[in-house]
Structures are given as structure tokens and as C-alpha cells.
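Input (structure):
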């Protein structure tokens, strides 16, 4: 991997760059696993060459207002019909995706079903959701999933307006959900995976790609790199400009997962701190996936690239 000079790198990461679109990730078709997911089974201050290594807490749910299935189905169909009208998908693909969405144990956005079936790319889906104003809202996902009531959502929105904090953090502060539940909904909204990074032994050479200062400032940590693709864990995976900044500087395609803030900070300390024996048995098989698979490509790459790691829903 070629990199710019040292002075140029320092200047790059002293400011934010606004980039509007992500590079497309290679999508792979796997209908059987898509069905399983849809139905709810369970630095850059220093340059480095691209390296090619290669419990969920109990939550007491409040009495919930039941979403109207007819309204949900109608909204999904309207978005799907827009895609058909623009010849982005076929009517048969829409009908199949709607059927999968209907039999899901938990709410799954139509876009996620289409993505899982390799009908559409993630970049294209995000563009279309933006164009049509159809991206699912975090609060709506939590209500539809039965994690909060409509009244609790309104309370959190009012709290958010008063103290100016993200909605998910407002819901946690009010005690309506825990962080794991919030991040699970965030992954549904953004179509990214939720990883338990405590179970990943990170190659120390990845510290050459993203500096400790940058990682700590932006709460992002590299997890593994295979070929020209780098997978990072981010505290806020919705930061498209940050992802594009990394891609532009490193010359790599960057894919994103998320994890809890505490686990992310622990991973940063492990990567940039003094080398220590791993706290986990590196030879024992470990599942790094929390919740369903939202991104099959990244899940498969992790299972193939990380030693003794699996990524299966539970």
C-alpha cells in the first residue's frame, strides 16, 4: 500500500474531511443464511503497509404498544414499489423479500432483507434510503422490536431536546434500555454487525495503520485487514465522513462493525498498550457475533481471517 509523506499524513488527520459516499463492498449471496437472519435466528500519523493476516444483559421489557403490522407492511411495500418502478429490483424480488419480512420473528427492515439476499449493495441501499427518506429511525426500530413503548420514546425525545444528546443515549440515561439493546437497534438501522471485540486477538501490526491518538479521539480501532479491505470497530458507525477519510488516506476499503463503548476502549488499550499475554485462549473457538448477522460479507471475512473465531447468530 502506498502512503503520502509524513507531514501530509499529520495534516490530514488534524482536520475533518466531508465525503458523501462510501465505496461499495463486495456482496456475496447466501440465501439460506439470509433466511435465517430474516427470521431471527437466534493514521494515521504513521504509515504502515497493508497487513494481510491472513451476555447480553437481561432487560425487563415494559408493557408495549403493539405496532400495527398492516402499517409496517404498507410502508415496506411502498419503498419496494419505488425500487421496482426505478427498475432497481424486480417485482419477484420484492415479493420474495416481503414474504421473508412477514415471517421474521422480529422486525427486519426491507432494505436489510434485500441486502442479505445480495439483491442490492450497501452503498446503493444507503443512497436510495436517503433519496426517498425511508431510513428507519432508531426510535421506531426499538418500538417495533418491543423494547420501548411509544410513550417512552416521546419521553426520550423530550429529554434529548433538553440536554442535546443522541436518542439512544437518552433512552439509556432514562433507564428504558441498556447499551446492548441500543446498539443492536443501531446495527439494524445501519446494516452493520455487532461484534464482541473482547473475543478478538488484534494483530499488533495494525497499530501502524491508525495511530493511538486518532483511535482514542474518534473511538475507532482496527480489527483485521485482508487484502485491500480493513475492518474497524466504531463507537458511532454512522460517521460516514470518518470512514471516507480513512479510506482516502489508507487506500483501503473500510468496513465497519460496532461494539459497546467499554469493549471498544479495552480493545484500544490492548492494541496500543504494552504487549501482554491474551486473556482468552487463542486456540479456543470463540463467537464474536452479538445478535443476528446484518453484514454477511464482514461476518464471513472475520470467520476466515481471525484465528479460532466464528460469527454465528444466537
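Output (sequence):
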Amino acid at each position: 500500500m502506498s502512503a503520502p509523506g509524513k507531514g501530509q499524513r499529520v495534516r490530514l488527520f488534524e482536520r475533518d474531511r466531508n465525503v458523501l459516499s462510501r465505496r461499495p463492498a463486495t456482496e456475496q449471496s447466501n440465501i439460506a443464511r439470509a433466511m435465517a437472519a430474516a427470521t431471527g435466528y437466534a493514521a494515521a500519523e504513521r504509515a504502515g503497509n497493508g497487513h494481510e493476516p491472513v451476555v447480553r444483559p437481561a432487560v425487563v421489557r415494559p408493557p408495549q404498544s403493539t405496532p400495527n403490522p398492516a402499517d409496517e407492511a404498507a410502508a415496506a411495500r411502498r419503498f419496494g414499489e419505488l425500487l421496482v418502478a426505478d427498475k432497481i429490483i424486480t417485482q419477484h424480488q420484492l415479493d420474495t423479500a416481503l414474504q421473508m419480512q412477514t415471517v421474521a420473528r422480529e422486525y427486519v427492515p426491507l432494505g436489510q432483507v434485500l441486502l442479505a439476499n445480495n439483491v442490492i449493495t450497501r452503498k446503493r441501499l444507503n443512497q436510495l434510503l436517503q433519496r426517498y427518506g425511508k431510513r428507519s429511525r432508531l426510535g421506531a426500530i426499538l418500538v417495533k422490536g418491543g423494547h420501548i413503548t411509544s410513550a417512552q420514546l416521546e419521553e426520550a425525545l423530550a429529554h434529548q431536546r433538553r440536554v442535546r444528546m443522541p436518542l439512544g443515549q437518552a433512552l439509556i440515561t432514562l433507564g428504558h434500555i441498556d447499551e446492548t439493546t441500543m446498539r443492536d437497534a443501531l446495527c439494524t438501522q445501519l446494516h452493520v454487525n455487532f461484534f464482541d471485540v473482547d473475543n478478538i486477538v488484534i494483530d499488533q501490526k495494525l497499530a501502524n495503520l491508525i495511530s493511538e491518538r486518532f483511535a482514542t479521539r474518534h473511538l475507532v480501532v482496527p480489527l483485521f485487514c485482508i487484502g485491500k479491505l480493513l475492518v474497524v470497530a466504531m463507537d458511532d458507525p454512522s460517521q460516514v465522513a470518518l470512514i471516507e477519510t480513512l479510506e482516502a488516506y489508507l487506500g483501503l476499503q473500510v468496513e465497519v462493525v460496532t461494539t459497546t463503548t467499554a469493549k471498544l476502549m479495552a480493545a484500544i488499550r490492548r492494541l496500543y498498550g504494552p504487549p501482554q499475554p491474551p486473556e482468552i485462549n487463542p486456540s479456543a473457538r470463540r463467537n464474536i457475533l452479538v445478535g443476528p448477522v446484518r453484514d454477511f460479507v464482514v461476518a464471513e471475512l472475520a470467520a476466515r481471517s481471525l484465528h479460532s473465531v466464528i460469527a454465528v447468530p444466537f
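Notes: The chain has three domains: 31-36+62-134, 136-190, 192-314. DSSP finds 14 helices and six strands in the chain.
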